[in-house]
Design a protein that fits this description.
With 788 residues, the protein is α+β, with helices and mostly antiparallel strands. Helices cover 28% and strands 26% of the residues. Bound molecules: cytidine-5'-diphosphate.
Length: 788
């Protein structure tokens, strides 16, 4: 569809260059570590070498003897203010600093406050801690066995390591469908722990101004307003009221869900600043970030799929064990402890489904964050896309043909899934067809058959995913009781330039550009004349922040609605200036004209000037509006990805030869930014498919706690992504847009895993857990006698 505005205005559909990039590519961004205040002190953290141990003694003497070290802060110090524990976003509790015992390796044990970063680090090395190791529970299955050591001894009535049981769907109907099925398949699928590993680690500068009694915290947070409220709720009893707290989230070097939680370092820095009256900076190093910050995934899934012998899918049954580490600190909506995992029927018209999830405590750091994913949708997509592939192979049907047969059809939208979601719009067959044409699917299948005869291993994998983004409608979505609306406030200045502030917070997605484009689309003010601000709780309207691809579906909609409120007033002013009735005016972006007299025109800039200089008697001056948008539904972006892999029979190495990604995020605001989001997302999907995993040995020692072992994809491992789009607008979003930021991360791993299994199915391989590393494949090939 051709854009409605000119390139000079730069509304929707224009690839406007990112406004933030001149700042970023010249190294002129302002990240938390760039904040330097006079008299600032530095905090560094002593961390536990044990995964589970009693703390017998903390001796600060050698540390405080180091020049520049001012204090060693322990859990006992915080206990005096009842700040040694804090609530998590899932209403569990998490230690700020321990008083009795540590629960995972690299947990915070004490903090050192010093006049320089170096003195603080020397202090950390000098603090002497005496530990008494306790039995370690690493495997969540063993954690739930009778007789397993109970980890949360702080919870008086807790007699086991079970956190919660959650189930959804019609069990009886699902069981009946399985009993009546002609074919069923069952598979155990493990989706391992991974870490977002953003370029910037976490950190803050806390400054308690004793004169004005005000706390300002610059911090790496994706949700500044929610953090302000949490701080006020947790520390209200020590005098930190919400109007005396200002959270500033400056430029952020990647968040991906990892910067939603409150980490102990933030709280200790705030406490240290309140006690000393000095600014306190805490910045994690890379290993602290990888070893102690929240993790994603870690789902142990058993899935079953049922079908008729004609290949019609009928039912899905899933049981999952979720390893949450020692506390449930996932940032899920309150009502859904397993996030949005129950979107697991995916793109398929299943008549019955039932899901059960159990959470378990283990001696690991908190897990369960939404890594570039709408809570648990990546786990859901991986499961259904793997299962559909297994069923297709089992029935001897081509996986593309099998999907085409079972897709929800365009005429079925709005579609109510067996697990209760109402999908807004979709054309799944259209996206798959386009991907198949682009990659030359039929020819690839011929090539594969040829190669197989020669003993070569080539696989073709499809992932036709359905995403669920835009949390969320307040009737279903809250975090700690805060409804998940979002906001936009617009002020048009007398000269026709504008400022718009939002409750979200970009971490690299380009909001300064795309929000300005939404306003340009609606108001006709050029995007370059619109300043977008986010992240300062003293100025921005309240919002729940940016994660789970909610910015476009929720705050983007707020921008459109606020713009339309501005236009309502602008119409009245234009009518006054043109001496016509408001209903006799015709609007096109940027100007009102009189019906039948197109030369009688007032531009938005003229109207803005009049709003301050010549507005009708009785009307308030100014041209401003605010919207707090509560979406009526989520948006359901989708896509079809096709991946071609070649497997080296000698080494087990998997090479992604081609990868075609067709995405549909409804109407597109900025095609260049969407393409960038998909490129980055695909690389973040390739990562867990082939490389990344955080595991633990039996003592709870983290494996993969540095970039030596935690393998991020570099340009060398990243194939040339071939991207494209279909456009199926959302019927309920004011701009017809859906989110896109995480689609590729969600959809890509299954395409790669399906391609690998497709290459090996004829050898009797049904499933390979990600990450699909060369040793894993080599062992399989050796067992099958393919290599020696
Ligand atoms: O919440 P987050 O910004 O991470 O995700 P998003 O809403 O999916 O948007 C990611 C980026 O893509 C933003 O800059 C959006 O404005 C842009 N986008 C777009 O240009 N068109 C869409 N239909 C969806 C997102």
């Amino acid at each position: 569809m051709a854009p409605r505005t000119s390139p000079e205005v730069g509304g929707m559909g224009h690839s406007v260059k990112r406004k933030e990039d001149p700042r970023f590519i010249r190294g002129k961004g302002t990240y938390v570590d760039d904040v330097v205040l006079p008299g600032m002190l530095y905090l560094d953290i002593v961390r536990s070498p044990f995964a589970h141990a009693k703390i017998k003694k903390i001796d600060p003497a050698s540390a405080t003897a180091i020049p520049g070290v001012l204090a060693v802060i322990t859990g006992k110090d915080l206990e005096k203010y009842n700040l040694h524990w804090m609530p998590t976003l899932m209403s569990d509790t998490q230690m700020v600093l321990p008083v009795e015992k540590v629960m995972y390796q690299a947990q915070e044990v004490a903090a050192v406050l010093a006049t320089s970063r170096y003195a603080a680090a020397d202090g950390v090395a000098a603090v002497e801690v005496e530990y008494e190791p306790l039995p370690v529970v690493v495997d969540p299955k063993k954690a739930l066995e009778p007789g397993a050591p109970v980890l949360r001894t702080d919870k008086k009535d807790k007699k086991d390591n079970h956190i919660w049981h959650w189930e959804w769907g019609d069990k009886a109907k699902t069981d009946r469908a399985f009993a009546e099925a002609d074919v069923t398949v069952k598979e155990d699928i493990y989706i391992p722990r991974i870490h977002v590993a953003s370029i910037e680690t976490c950190g803050c500068v806390a400054h308690f101004d004793k004169v004005n009694d005000k706390l300002t915290v610059w911090m790496t947070t994706q949700a500044p307003h929610a953090i302000r409220t949490v701080f006020a709720l947790v520390a209200g009893h020590v005098g930190l009221a919400e109007h005396k707290i200002r959270i500033i989230s400056p430029d952020i070097g990647g968040g991906f869900g990892g910067k939603v939680p409150v980490y102990p370092g933030y709280v200790i820095a705030v406490a240290a600043s309140v006690l000393t009256g000095k600014p306190v900076k805490w910045i994690e190093d890379r290993m602290e970030n990888l070893q102690a910050d929240s993790f994603a995934r870690d789902y142990h899934i058993t899935a079953e799929l049922a079908a008729r012998k004609d290949g019609t899918l009928t039912a899905l049954r899933i049981k999952t064990l979720a390893d949450h580490g020692y506390t449930d600190a996932a940032a899920n909506p309150s009502k859904f402890p397993a996030g949005l995992f129950h979107v697991c029927t995916g793109s398929y018209d299943l008549k019955a489904a039932h899901v059960e999830v159990d959470g378990a405590y283990t001696n690991k750091p908190p897990g369960g964050i939404a890594y570039r994913c709408s809570f648990r949708v990546t786990e859901a997509v991986h499961t259904i896309e793997r299962m559909v592939d297994i069923m297709a192979h089992q029935l001897g049907t081509d996986p593309a043909e099998f999907r085409m047969k079972n897709f929800v059809k365009p005429e079925q939208f709005p579609y109510k899934s067996a697990l209760g979601w109402e999908y807004d719009s979709g054309n799944y067959a259209g996206a798959l067809q386009k991907a198949m044409e682009r990659i030359g699917y039929a020819e690839l299948r011929r090539e594969q058959a040829e190669k197989r005869k020669r003993g070569q291993l080539m696989g073709i994998g499809i992932s036709s995913f359905t995403e669920i983004v835009g949390a969320g409608p307040s009737k279903h979505f809250d975090i700690l009781g805060l409804k998940m609306f979002d906001s936009c406030e617009i002020r048009i200045h007398p000269t026709g330039k504008a400022i718009a502030r939002f409750g979200t917070k970009s971490q690299g997605q380009g909001h300064e550009t795309t929000y300005a484009q939404i306003l340009a689309e609606e108001l006709g003010i050029p995007a370059k004349d619109i300043q977008v601000e986010e992240g300062d709780t003293d100025t921005a309207p309240y919002g729940l922040g940016t994660y789970a691809s909610r910015s476009t579906p929720v705050a983007g909609a707020a921008a459109a609605i606020a713009s339309r409120k501005v236009l309502d007033k602008a119409r009245k002013i234009a009518a006054y200036l043109l001496e016509a009735a408001p209903e006799d005016l015709v609007y096109e972006p940027g100007k009102f004209s009189v019906k039948g007299a197109p030369n009688r025109v007032k531009t938005i800039q003229e109207i803005a000037f009049a709003a301050y200089t010549n507005h009708p008697q009785g009307m308030e001056a100014g041209l401003e509006a605010v919207s707090y948008y509560d979406p009526p539904n989520l948006t359901y972006p989708f896509g079809s990805y096709i991946c071609v892999v070649d497997i080296d029979t000698g080494t087990g190495d998997v090479k992604v030869r081609r990868f075609v990604a067709i995405d549909d995020c409804g109407n597109i605001i900025n095609p260049m930014i969407v393409e960038g989001q998909v490129h980055g997302g695909l690389t973040m999907g390739l990562a867990p498919a082939l490389l990344e995993e955080i595991s633990y040995d039996e003592y709870g020692n983290v494996q993969g706690g540095s970039f030596i072992d935690y393998l991020l994809p570099t340009a060398v491992e990243t194939p040339k992504w071939e991207t494209g789009n279909t456009v199926t607008p959302s019927p309920h979003h004011p701009l017809g847009a859906k989110g896109v930021g995480e689609s590729a991360t969600v959809g890509a791993p299954a395409a790669i895993a399906n391609a690998v299994v497709d290459a090996l199915w004829h050898l009797g391989v049904r499933h390979v857990d990600i990450p699909i590393t060369p040793p894993k494949i080599w062992k399989l090939l050796r067992a099958k006698g393919i290599t020696d």
